[in-house]
Structure formats: C-alpha cells, structure tokens
Amino acid sequence: MSRIAYVNGRFVPHSHAEVHVEDRGYQFADGVYEVVLVQNGVMVDEIPHLERLDRSLDELRIPHPMSRGALRAQMRELVRQNRIRNGLVYMQVTRGVAKRDHPFPKNAKPSIVMTAKRIAMATPEAVENGVKVITIKDIRWERCDIKSIALLPNVLGKQQARENGAFEAWQVDEDGKVTEGTSSNAWIVTQDGELVTRPATNDILNGITRMSILKLADRQGLKFVERPFSVEEAKSAREAFVSSATAFVTPVTQIDDTVIGNGKAGSLSRGLRDSYMDYAAGEGATA
Ligand code: PMP
User: Fold this and answer.
1) CA 21/CA 188 separation, integer angstroms
2) Rounded distance from Cα 107 to ligand 1 centre (Å)
3) Among the three residues 118, 135, 159, which one is the final residue of a domain in this structure?
4) What pLDDT is attached to residue 106?
5) How far apart are CA 78 and CA 67, in angstroms?
6) Whose CA is nearest to atom 5 of ligand 1?
7) Under 8 Å CB-to-CB from 138, ≥6 apart: which residues?
8) Residue range(s) defining the domain that contains residue 95
9) Catalytic member of 99, 109, 147, 215
10) Does residue 109 sit in the same domain as residue 210?
11) Which of 47, 152, 174, 251 could form a disulfide with 269 if both were Cys (CB 3.0 to 4.6 A apart)?
12) Ligand 1: which residue has its CA nearest to atom 12?
C-alpha cells in the first residue's frame, strides 16, 4: 500500500509530498513539530500534544495554521488513508515560504505537513533486557522547552549512540547533571526507591509521556521528586529508564560501561511501563 502524506491542505502520495525550497523550515529550521502515537487505532495523549504544539508555535510567534478541531480531523483522515492501527503521526509547522531573509517575513502563511507510519511494539524480551545509553555533553541552546525542528545536536548525539551500540545518548549539562536524551526524557530510581527526573525548565522538553508518568506515579503513591541528577548518581541507581511517546517507558540497563541493577529491567520501571500502557489504552486515548 502506498503511503499518503498531508501537505498544506492536500493528501498526496508520500513520494510526491514536497515543500518549496524557500520554506523557512528547510532554510532556517524555523518551525516546530509533534509526534502523536496511534495505538489500536486511537490517539494517545493527543490533546496534551496539541497543546504543546500551540505553545511551541506561540513561543516562536508562528501563527497557528488551522483550528485544533480542523487539525484533529486531518490527523484522523491521514491515519485512515494510511490504514494505521499502531504507529504515529508526525506533524511539522514552519513559518512558511518566503524569500530568504532572517527576520520574520510579512506575509508568509505557515506551512503544515504531516506523515503517518506504522511502528512495531518492543518485544517483552527487549523490554526485559533494557537498553544502553551513553552520556554526552549537552551542546544545545537555552530553549529546549520548545519542540523546534532544529535538531542538529540531537541528531549528532543519537548517531554517536548508534555508533556505540546504544539506544540513546543522555545529554549532560556543565554541572555534570543529566538534562535528557536526544529524543526522550531521562529517569532514575535511587537505591532508596525514589523516582527522579529533571524538572521541566527550559533545559529540557517537557515530555507528554513524562507528565503522564508523573501523574500515574502520584496516583500510585510512589515516592518521586523532580530534581537534576548527576551521571554518577545515575550509574549507581537501582533502576533507570527513558520515556517518550514512542518508547513509552523503556528500561535502561547500561549507562556507558556501567551495568544498572542486575542488568535487567527494574520492577518499578516495568510497573510504570504497564500502567502507562493501560493509561494509553484507556484514559489517555482519544478516538
Ligand atoms: N525530549 C526530547 C528532546 C524529545 O525529542 C522527546 C520526544 N519528542 C522527548 C523528550 C519526549 O517527549 P514526549 O514524551 O512528548 O514524546
């Protein structure tokens, strides 16, 4: 089946889905994006993702390309046309097409493109074995709270992870504290059983999955705290994991050369993964 993409109001074959060479996303990375998971045919945490899209646009003063209702309808049409039951919708909004010049153009209309694709769920064995992360210097700008398409440091970091046989790279600030992964948030469980993740300041992207996990942890009466943690603390943690819309809760069993816990997924991480999956299929789902 051929894939269909959405480009500025039109559904077109993926192979012909194009934007102009003077799109500001292409020339300046002047745009933002979102990824919404589709699970069993329904969207997961759709509204918080669209709220974050609006926030990213507002922070960069990019006009909203359409109403939320219209966008939700187009997302559903894209999922339907691509016959996605389990996968994701990627959406990107840029400041639009204009003669190349740094200041905001006067009359540009924002461009919006969307693609959808299927993704496979991790096998139980893969979850149980967990993943490796490496640690790298955080070389990004001071507005990591904006989900901007300017992802070069993240791209370089993820590539370094791959070249070192790792799933993710945890970025580390000047104080030796972990900010987040290149496409996920970072978590540890201390030897005292406390769940720790960095507070949502401008140093990190406030993951939608992160917020849902915090809500679930709170409801379950788990001990948790939002504070920065160091690489050393992470390496001596009882458990570690990453979170994102596509990774859910993915246990981390190795950081650089250090094995975490007994090298298998920790019980708190597994429990949170299960409760997040239940949440994604129930309360967090929108048809
Ligand atoms: N941090 C970064 C840098 C990311 O790219 C992502 C994935 N979008 C996340 C965190 C996790 O966010 P979410 O849970 O909303 O997918």
Assistant:
1) 43
2) 32
3) 118
4) 95
5) 17
6) 183
7) 153, 171, 172, 173, 179
8) 4-118
9) 147
10) no
11) 251
12) 207
Ligand 1 mean position, distance from CA 184 (Å): 4
CATH code of 187's domain: 3.20.10.10
Any domain includes 90: yes
Q: Which residues line ligand 1 at a C-beta cut-off of 6 Å? A: 35, 180, 183-185, 205, 207-210, 243-245
Low-confidence ranges of the chain (pLDDT < 70): 1
Whether residue 137 lies in the annotated active site: no
Residues 155 and 270 in one domain: yes
The whole-number pLDDT of residue 287 equals 87
How many Å lie between the centroid of ligand 1 and the Cα of residue 202?
13
Same-domain status, 91 and 130: no
